[in-house]
Design a protein that fits this description.
alpha/beta; five-stranded parallel sheet
Length: 368
């Protein structure tokens, strides 16, 4: 076929253009496709212009090759627009493109395995992509304008890609679920590409939100084979290193958590040291007795006096915990070896790690 100029035309029935070629321009400006629309395995030559077109039952461009510019600005898709395995060899405009879904479980736009030969000239602007699928599609250089709307995580509010929350059926249909298991590693790659994209444009705030999603996928992925698989998977998701990274700082996105956790650490050490025992470092006698909760309690004394004695002990323990956390070399009281020293070592390691996470979060949030 040569040029196709079908502007402002209404196609009342289904439209199928498959395994054919528009040698030059394919112009469908303002066209209305009332039925199902298929442009599968098509080749569009000089240009494919669907500006202000209306697709009442979605459109399928699966496997199509768009050699020239592909324009979908102001187009409206009432159902899914599918560009999986399509090749965009020139620029593509998705400006003010509308995706309206009748089926809430379906994706709005699918670009799985699509290839962008000039990714810097692929533009999405004023588009709702909260249900778009970019699985196995390199979007690290695609131009997503600030007006693009992404989905959000229900609990934390960070940005989320649809592949993570889509139903199992959608995941199976678009290959990010295999044998009943969500492919979290591959979804992490999608998050990583979005993070790289926004990092390269110096939009660190948005990049950090996609970083959260990438790390969540790494936490959920876990081991895939070997003995005690279910137990190891549960451990990885809830008590593994990545899980603690989340608990401590939201994967480096929160600088408040690393500030709050040390207070809990100091409180725990303060309450534990009197159980293991404290001793005065400047004690003259080598056999100086350690003080504990039970050793300072005098059954012959009044409850009030004992209460204040215990309070003073906790105060001394608190100072010891602060000295330990701040690497003081000459504390007045030291934890009794060996159990108290074990608590002190854990406190030191934990507070140092939390301080490092605090600095990392500050850098991620306020870098320039």
């Amino acid at each position: 076929m040569g040029d196709a100029s079908l502007c402002d035309v209404t196609f009342k029935g289904g439209v199928e253009f498959q395994n054919a070629k528009f040698a030059k321009k394919a112009l469908f400006l303002g066209a209305t496709f009332a039925g199902s629309t298929y442009f599968s395995d098509m080749t569009f030559g000089e240009a494919a212009d669907f500006t202000s077109a209306n697709f009442m039952h979605g459109a399928v461009f699966t496997g199509s090759t768009l050699i020239g510019p592909a324009i979908y600005s102001h187009a409206a898709f009432v159902d899914t627009g599918n560009w999986s395995e399509a090749e965009f060899r020139d620029r593509a405009d998705f400006r003010d493109t509308s995706f309206t879904l009748g089926d809430k479980e379906s994706p709005s736009a699918v670009f799985s395995l699509a290839r962008f030969y000039k990714p810097g000239e692929i533009v999405f602007e004023d588009v709702d992509l909260d249900r778009a699928v970019f699985f196995n599609c390199d979007v690290s250089q695609v131009w997503f304008k600030p007006s693009v709307n992404w989905g959000r995580r229900p609990r934390h509010g960070q940005l989320a890609v649809f592949e993570e929350t889509a139903s199992n059926k959608v995941a199976e249909d678009y290959f990010f679920q295999v044998e009943g298991k969500r492919n979290y590693r591959a979804i992490a790659q999608t998050y990583r590409q979005h993070k790289k994209n926004y990092d390269s444009r110096l939009d660190y705030w948005t990049a950090n939100e996609f970083h959260f999603g990438e790390m969540e996928m790494r936490r959920l992925a876990g081991p895939t084979d070997g003995p005690l698989l279910q137990l190891r998977r549960w451990w990885h998701r809830n008590l593994g290193f990545v899980a603690w990274y989340k608990y401590a700082s939201d994967y480096g996105n929160s600088y408040r958590k690393p500030l709050l956790w040390p207070f809990g650490t100091l409180l725990a050490a303060t309450l534990l040291f009197p159980i293991t025992g404290l001793e005065l470092k400047q004690a003259i006698s080598a056999n100086a007795a350690s003080v504990t909760y039970s050793s300072v309690w005098n059954r012959q004394d009044s409850w009030t006096n004992n209460f204040w004695t215990e309070a003073k002990l906790i105060g001394k323990s608190g100072i010891t915990a602060i000295d330990t956390a701040t690497f003081q070399r000459t504390p007045e009281y030291t934890p009794v070896y060996p159990r108290g020293r074990v608590v002190a070592v854990f406190e030191t390691l934990l507070t140092a790690s939390l301080f490092a996470l605090f600095l990392l979060a500050i850098r991620r949030q306020f870098r320039r």
